[in-house]
Amino acid sequence: MPSYVVAGAARGLGLEFVNQLSSKSDHTVFALIRNSATASTLYEVQESRENVVILEADIADSVAVEEAAKAVESATSGTLDYLIIVAALATNMNKSILAFDSNEELNEDLLEHFHTNVLGVVHTIKTFLPLLRRGPTKKVAVLSTGNADLDATLSMANPGRVGYGISKAAMNMAVAKLALALKPEGFVFVSISPGMVDSKAGRRSPENEAVFQKTAERIKVLLPDFEGPITPEQSVDMMLKVIHRWTVEETGQFVSHYGNKQWL
Ligand SMILES: NC(=O)c1ccc[n+]([C@@H]2O[C@H](COP(=O)([O-])OP(=O)(O)OC[C@H]3O[C@@H](n4cnc5c(N)ncnc54)[C@H](OP(=O)(O)O)[C@@H]3O)[C@@H](O)[C@H]2O)c1
Predict the structure, then answer these.
(1) pLDDT tens digits for 180-232?
(2) Mind telling me which InterPro entries this protein's record contains (predicted)?
(3) Which of 34, 42, 124, 156, when mutated, tests ligand 1's pocket best, judged by the most ligand atoms within 8 Å of its CB?
């Protein structure tokens, strides 16, 4: 009866993780969301599946995450097999460092991203550690991005995604540090990029839709083999295969949905 916590499960890739994981009736899936208003499809999934438990917690709110961990603990007799952190802040995606109107605005962008994407991730992992320690599996996967890879950033020549890319790169390092500290206990960590995924189909503003399509076109010019964005179903299927096969010898690495450094 493996148990999974998916943090950031209201929609997008988190919702798809819950959908695929809960399709196996012997899995128990705890879906952490910060806002039930955006989670209507998740509630529909829960209606047809007895093995989905929805809990409210913003990963940047340590008290809420502790409450969620207590609820998981009492439902599983104290253990957890897998923690998958999907939630992330991703704003000001098209601004370069030079495009912020003031230093205050730039600082605010960097600190807000750091607060959720680094501190939120680190404290969520720490909060669930006692449960993971009591389980036999001890696996933690955190969603990262090719925008956190220096070589990919330089070759794509995109000076935007400032707070997002910087905080995700810091998050990868935080995951590596935790992986090293917990390797002697048999923990397996992975920072995993999902590829370019059309996870927001039908809910982008016209402006963001144009940017998304333009980015896909630009990548096709740079990488002629790139076939365009993949679906959440494809991405999560590939990521779960990587997560399930990842070993303690590979703990702490930052890889793509292919399990290597091919980001797209
Ligand atoms: N889609 C891509 O092409 C792509 C590429 C590279 C990396 N990624 C990474 O993949 C992950 C998921 O992306 P996505 O495309 O599925 O994004 P998405 O469609 O915007 O979904 C993000 C989910 O995370 C939740 N969330 C955000 N901040 C949260 C917080 N502080 N606490 C709890 N939940 C929170 C959101 O909840 P609300 O509904 O409340 O907003 C939403 O359910 C992110 O880590 C992202 O950086 C995605």
Answers:
(1) 999 999 999 999 999 999 999 888 888 888 888 888 888 888 888 898 999 99
(2) NAD(P)-bd_dom_sf, SDR_enzymes, SDR_fam
(3) 34
Mean pLDDT, rounded, for 4-22: 98
Contacting residues for 30 by C-beta, under 8 A, at least 6 apart: 3, 4, 5, 6, 53, 55, 68, 71, 72, 75
- At the fourth CATH level, the homologous superfamily of domain 3-195+230-256 is NAD(P)-binding Rossmann-like Domain (3.40.50.720)
Q: Where exactly are the structural domains of the chain?
A: 3-195+230-256, 204-229
164 a catalytic residue? yes
Known active-site residue 168? yes
247: left (phi over 0), alpha (psi -120 to 50) or beta: beta
Question: Which tens digits make up the pLDDT trace of 123-146?
Answer: 999 999 999 999 999 999 999 999
Residue from 6, 13, 257 to probe ligand 1 pocket by mutation (most atoms less than 8 Å from CB): 13
Task: Give the per-residue pLDDT at 31.
Answer: 98
10 lines ligand 1 (CB under 6 A): yes
Q: Which of 43, 95, 164, 258 is catalytic?
A: 164
**Tokens 């990868």, located at residue:** 172
